[in-house]
Automatic annotation (TrEMBL):
It is found in: Cell membrane. It is a multi-pass membrane protein. The keyword Cell membrane applies. It comes from the Bacteria. GO terms for molecular function: transmembrane transporter activity. This is DHA2 family efflux MFS transporter permease subunit. The keyword Transmembrane applies. It comes from Kocuria tytonis. Residues 20-484 form the Major facilitator superfamily (MFS) profile domain. The chain crosses the membrane at residues 21-46, 58-78, 85-103, 115-136, 148-168, 174-192, 204-225, 245-266, 286-311, 323-340, 352-370, 376-402, 423-446, 458-479. One of its GO terms (cellular component) is plasma membrane. The lineage of its organism: Bacteria, Bacillati, Actinomycetota, Actinomycetes, Micrococcales. Keywords: Cell membrane, Membrane, Transmembrane, Transmembrane helix, Transport. Belongs to the major facilitator superfamily. EmrB family. CDD domains: MFS_LmrB_MDR_like.
């Protein structure tokens, strides 16, 4: 295997291509929905399984850590095994974890179930993106990647709302029983319909890379998580500082281990045997898009982390009410995806991403002016506008970043993008929540029990998000339309 020159693309017939992508879209939707569906259920789990608030957070933390550890391995998995085998591994693991969670008699069993779920979930998005790259010709990828944005945007937005509706009438385990039949149906259909579209090679698993990846990315995300949690839960300045110091230590260890992981991959690339091929960064458009996506994800967390803290801490809104306020933006972002994809295919990335980044910058500045009496309708308007801006950024960035890669780097490019999304999400949370808490502490209001008390911190967090969005605006000016390298793999049916 070599990435020095593009491999000869495999020619695939159009029959069944739409069905293949549709099955993967549904499967990815279900597993991504699962990332947020339990957020509302945590208080119910605390009471039923007799654990405290600090312990119950491991329901989400264990899922996030497993995702961070497994995603870097997907580049190897997708090149070593067939599409159907990887799909069966992903959905089979997710189904097993879902069933175990629904039956879990104790908190320890529930955590084990979440780890198994996360293992399958981590594989699905890279599998989906790699399959699209293999099946869809470059000039039609925008509209198909737009459909992916529905999965990425709508599923997390629906999670808390759907869970809240279920929990209003049924026990928390019902959330898993609700998901399980859909997962099993997607698994059966996928095994019957999926074809092998992967570019496989005789790769050797490098155990040192696995160890460095697991410890490095796990420590990185855990450190970011602890720093972010310190900002959102610490009640005193000393408690915040001590918790932050502990998280920073783990974070520093993660940075060192990830640096060693990168060094190891560079060594392995000389033998064409990397665990995660970083030659994707030799492609300018991929590198620019990675930067845009990572910083855009950090700015996004201003809306999905700081805004709910603002609404719930001072406005007295519960999780379901907060979810309903945030829901329109998530739905609109997803529904705009196919339209943005078509516009991308027609005009390229820059005419979409630059206005989107400009809008995102204005919205973050608008959020930085929030007060304790800001009307809810204005908050919803800003949140919807943020979603429009992100839709104009994310679909072009995903597509223009992956388009110039040769086929043998598709799986590694998808894995790299997904990995950096996880890390950027954690970094955005840690940075913005940390700034929020620092702003509150500096003003002598460390408890942050009301919006009036914490409003300086809210302002500081969104000013930081505004600066990040402004950097995204500059970077989008360097995005460009990729020259097609191959146009003959499938017919028009692939992009419908």
């Amino acid at each position: 295997m070599s990435s020095a020159a593009p491999a000869e693309p495999r020619t695939l017939a159009p029959q069944g291509t739409t069905g293949t992508i549709a099955v993967l879209l549904v499967a990815a939707f279900v597993v991504i929905l699962n990332e947020t569906v339990l957020n509302v259920a945590l208080p119910h789990i605390m009471g039923d399984l007799h654990v405290d608030a600090a312990t119950v957070q491991w329901v989400t933390t264990s899922f996030m850590l497993t995702m961070a550890v497994v995603i870097p391995t997907t580049g190897f998995l997708l090149q070593r095994f067939s599409t159907r085998a990887v799909f069966a591994l992903a959905m089979g693991s997710f189904a097993a974890g879902t069933l175990l969670a629904a039956l879990s008699p104790s908190f320890g069993v529930l955590i084990a179930a979440r780890v198994i779920q996360a293992f399958g979930s981590a594989i699905m998005l890279p599998l989906l993106m790699t399959t699209i790259l293999m099946l869809v010709p470059q000039q039609r990828r925008g509209v198909v990647m737009g459909n992916v944005s529905i999965v990425i945007s709508v599923a997390p937005a629906l999670g808390p709302t759907l869970s809240g509706l279920i929990l209003a009438h049924f026990p928390w385990r019902t959330v898993f029983w609700f998901v399980l039949p859909i997962v099993l149906l997607a698994l059966v259909i996928g095994l019957l319909r999926l074809r092998d579209v992967s570019e496989r090679g005789s790769l050797t698993l490098d155990l040192l890379s696995v160890v460095l990846s697991v410890l490095g990315f796990g420590s990185l995300v855990q450190g970011l998580s602890v720093v972010g949690a310190a900002g959102s839960h610490a009640g005193t300045e000393s408690g915040w500082l001590s918790t932050t110091a502990g998280g920073a230590t783990v974070l520093a260890l993660g940075v060192v281990l990830v640096a060693l992981f990168v060094w190891r991959q560079i060594r392995l690339q000389r033998k064409d045997q990397p665990f995660l091929d970083l030659r994707t960064f030799r492609h300018r458009d991929f590198t620019v898009s990675v930067a845009v996506l990572a910083l855009g994800m950090m700015a996004l967390f201003g809306g999905v982390i700081v805004l709910p803290l603002y609404l719930q801490t001072g406005r007295g809104l519960d999780t379901l009410q907060t979810g309903l306020i945030l829901l329109p933006g998530g739905l609109i972002m997803g529904l705009l995806g196919p339209l943005v994809g078509r516009l991308f295919d027609a005009f390229g990335p820059r005419p979409l991403a630059v206005p989107g980044a400009a809008l995102l910058t204005l919205v973050m500045f608008g959020f930085s002016r929030l007060q304790s009496d800001t009307p809810v309708w204005w908050i919803v308007t800003l949140q919807i506008s943020m979603s429009v801006g992100l839709a104009l950024i994310f679909t072009p960035a995903f597509t223009s970043g992956l388009n110039p890669l040769p086929p043998q780097l598709y799986s590694h490019g998808s894995a790299t993008l997904s990995t950096l999304q996880q890390v950027a999400g954690g970094a955005g949370t840690a940075l913005l929540v940390g700034v929020l808490q620092a702003g509150t502490v500096i003003h002598g209001q460390a408890d942050g029990t009301t919006v009036t008390d914490s409003i300086p911190g809210v302002h500081a967090a969104f000013v930081t998000a505004t600066v990040i969005a402004a950097i995204v605006l500059v970077l989008t000016c360097f995005m460009r339309r990729s020259t097609p390298t191959e146009l003959t793999r499938v017919g028009d049916d692939a992009a419908r």
